[in-house]
Amino acid sequence: MRRMRSFRAALTAAATAAASVALALTGTGAAQAATPLPNRVFAPYFEAWTGESPAALAAQSGAKHLTMAFLQTASKGSCTPYWGGDTSMPVAASSFGTDIKTIQAGGGDVIPSFGGYTADTTGTEIADSCTDVQQIAAAYEKVITTYDISRLDMDVEVDSLDNTAGIDRRNKAIKLVQDWAAANGRTVQISYTLPTTTHGLADNGVALLRNAVSNGARVDVVNLMTFDYYDNQAHDMAKDTQTAAQGLHDTLAQLYPGKTSAQLWGMVGVTEMIGVDDFGPAETFSLANARTVYDWAVSQGINTLSFWALQRDNGSCAGGAAADNCSGIQQNTWDFTHVFAPFTGGSTAPANDFSVSLAPASGSVTAGQSTTTTVKTAVTAGQAQQVKLSVSGAPAGVTASLSPSSVTAGGSATLTLATASATASGTYRITVTGTGTAGSHAATYALTVTGGSGHQCTAAPWAKDAVYTGGQQVSHNGHTWKAKWWTTGEEPGTTGEWGVWQDLGPC
Fold first, then answer.
1. Pairing of strands 65-73, 109-115
2. Which domains does the chain have, with CATH numbers?
3. How confident is the model at residue 397 (pLDDT cuts 50, 70, 90)?
4. Where along the sequence do coiled-coil regions lie (predicted)?
């Protein structure tokens, strides 16, 4: 899958020491048995380079299991993996160790994923980068023992999918790891995440799995990336998921003739790209698609349900292009997670859940006047619950009030936005959050203020379709922003501390 921003350090990592290789391969290192994953698991991808806490986002979203993206070497030729290829983020307890323990203590777990689009196109996927099979195996084992996990994922696409030498090394290393795990009483699963057509794997994906069979490497799950088809065709993304998975099932039947149909479906995983994918609006995975895929996944008994990525599960850039931090469609925060989360170990919908929306979702007001919008809530599962409402994001000169500030799900409230004559003209995003026993949901209101006497911004307003290069400045929401690097479609104020836009302050 794509990683759109790279924070990989420029330093070259040292190769794994021979002593460490010997220690890992002889099984004398720590090898306590990790808790196996459920037979059916929802594990959305977590973008590990953003600086966010996976444990915090897991708790906020309700996703108990995460796929951690990605592990890769810092430079081509290295045998040492780092999170995001960043030498300041080694495979060690200091990198996500506390977060992973917190997730595990709550009954969940993580699936570290090697590879990804950036690694697979720069020669830093470890089996492409490292020519020593034993060192590759030692790196896999270090991740397993450091984080006490029971599954590793191999995200192999683009250039890596055609690197036959790397494919062979990877599968040989997987076989070594599986032998090591068996000798130490540890359960270790291997999943392969692969691109797909709407009717199943392309020839190079089939060849990768055939090589695994010939090397005696057990593949527990084949996880299809059911997006980014780039075929200029009309798409029903839910139907395409089903036909792609059926094609995979039929391929697996040829590779594993001794397995039953149910066992083959139990090897299937699917990963969606929620909202707008990299191709564009023609390939949009909607909430309705998510519900269809969920019901199908339960009925077929597939193993893994996932999406790219947890940080995209919000509607902060509705109508925009594919981005790392939002879905590009109108939705509440965590909507997709709430649809897929019950897949882990059950088939019933989550009890007592709700949604929040605004009608209208935008409006314009002359400075010194007020405007209102209706905050609507609805029961989406189970029974109605009490929802506490709050407002954030109101700029200086705008007073926000809610009446009432608490409703029973299914009820509504009025949001009043009062502006002062000194309010600066501009468009501001104001968020209404509803909090109940099922968690929180939010909706955003775009308030445009005109005729204000406040200080005016001199930089040109940000435009979502414009292309910006490093150093260019724009005005947005009453602030001046400077681009750190090339960007388009990423809204200032939504990309976080590590994002492309630097906040230069109010203007």
1. parallel
2. 18-340 (3.20.20.80), 353-450 (2.60.40.10), 467-506 (2.10.10.20)
3. confident
4. none
